[in-house]
Amino acid sequence: MAAQPLKGKVALVAGATRGAGRGIAVELGAAGATVYVTGRSTRERRSEYDRPETIEDTADLVTEAGGTGIAVPTDHLEPAQVRALVDRIADEQGRLDVLVNDVWGGEKLFEWTSPVWEHDLDNGLRLLRLAVETHAITNHFALPLLLRHPGGLTVEMTDGTAEYNGTHYRATFFYDLAKSSVLRMAFALGHELGPRGATAVALTPGWLRSEMMLDGFGVREENWRDALTKVPHFVISETPRYVGRAVAALAGDPDVSRFNGQSLSSGGLAQIYGFTDLDGSRPDAWRYIVEVQDADKPADATGYR
Q1: Dihedrals φ, ψ of 27, to 5°?
Q2: In this predicted model, what pLDDT tens digit does every residue of 212-264 receive, in sequence order?
Q3: pLDDT value, residue 1
Q4: Would you say residue 299 lies in a domain?
């Protein structure tokens, strides 16, 4: 069996039904961790996404990878449910070493081309609640448990680095506000956790080949390159396991506090820690986006993966 540097560690991945959350949970499991995975889609009941992925499936994948996966249905907008989740982890494990806030749920709520005055207001406000309020609620209840033992790590998942989002408009008012808020949340948490012996970071994947993204392009992971005829810059894309390996590397780093309060990316961390995506490549999406995609150059990932 491969080395398991996180054996004996306990993680909570909030929002682990699919996408980055699932990839992170599986890689934490591969590193030996016990991983609590939460979300609203279960084998008995689907969320409004109405998709087949479930938290039970994620938990099974964690266990298959070498960890212990535990699925707990949780709506992170409901404080009582989050309190009960954290109480259960405390009762069963007595500790929490890694907290990953990946709750999002906004794909069906934001409108790509609508300015704020035309965007559906209820959808926009719900998007903000799902993307920001859920993280605040989860931090409120989970961080006291994480602080019981020194060296804890909190990862705020977002889209875009602080450097990139600070100078680029991200699609819509509500999307831009949501993703930038999470970046700032990690910065604030760094100030509150750092003096207390824990670390907080913001982390973004690159162009993620999530289940929903693949479905949207009409491809599967096995033939994802078929989408390049329609979306050539998809050539820089990465699997959810890549950002999962980024989180596992951070969680296993005894000097992770050097990143406290910072904004990080999967591609940037791959250069530091040496991990690869499942195909052995190291996509550096945010450098590619600036130097190739935003520069209106032809799609070509040479030198970027």
Answers
A1: -70, -35
A2: 999 999 999 999 999 999 999 999 999 999 999 999 999 999 999 999 999 99
A3: 54
A4: no
Cα 29 from Cα 100, distance rounded (Å)? 13
Instruction: Name the residue among 63, 61, 88, 62 with its Cα closest to residue 73.
Output: 88
Which residues in 54-75 are b (16+ Cβ under 10 Å) and which e?
Answer: bbbbbbebbbebbbebbbbbbb
Evaluate the CA torsion angle 253, 259, 264, 270 in order and state its sign: negative
Cα separation, 212 vs 204, whole angstroms: 17
Distance CA 192, CA 226 (A): 46
- The answer as to whether 161 is a domain residue is yes
109 and 127 in contact (C-beta within 8 Å)?
Answer: yes
As a whole number, mean pLDDT of residues 166-185 equals 95
pTM of the complete model beyond 0.85? yes
Q: How does pLDDT run across 76-107, given as a tens digit for each residue?
A: 999 999 999 999 999 999 999 999 999 998 88
Task: Answer whether residue 294 is part of any domain.
Answer: no
Please count the structural domains in the chain.
1
> Residue 111: what pLDDT?
87
- Residue 230 placed within a domain: no
Tokens 């609590």 sit on residue: 36
Q: Which domain holds residue 192?
A: 10-219+239-282
Assign residue 254 the CATH number of its domain: 3.40.50.720
